[in-house]
Design a protein that fits this description.
By secondary structure, the protein is an alpha/beta fold. It contains four helices and five strands; from the N terminus they run βαβαβαββα. The protein has one domain: 3-Layer(aba) Sandwich (Glutaredoxin). It starts with a strand and ends with a helix. The model has no long low-confidence stretch (mean pLDDT 94).
Length: 104
């Protein structure tokens, strides 16, 4: 299951040893709801290798501001505490898996 990432915990998650995938989303966003099951599947499949989390931009606006999120869904990929890849818009599972595999 994907972790809930908030304005108060995102910094500690990104600073960890594992690569991180952050999904910026909102309840009202159709494409966000479309990729939600994919994000959950990947979170379960990669739970020992990658931290996968979801940031609700309506409830956590500061995280969205910090990363200059202008469109959702947006997925940020972190390695070593830095953003190394970004996906704006929906994507299919094979594309997400490919991006995660590049982090490892």
């Amino acid at each position: 299951m994907a972790l809930e990432i908030t304005d108060s915990n995102w910094a500690s998650l990104v600073a960890g040893d594992k690569p991180v995938v952050m999904d910026f989303w909102a309840e009202w966003c159709g494409p966000c709801r479309m990729i939600a099951p994919i994000v959950e599947e990947v979170a379960q499949e990669y739970k020992d290798k990658v931290v996968v989390g979801k940031v609700n931009v309506d409830e956590n606006p500061q995280a969205a501001i910090n990363f200059e999120i202008r469109n959702i869904p947006t997925l940020l990929f972190f390695k070593g505490g830095k953003v190394v890849d970004k996906q704006v818009g929906a994507l299919r599972k094979p594309e997400l898996v490919e991006k995660i595999n590049r982090l490892l």
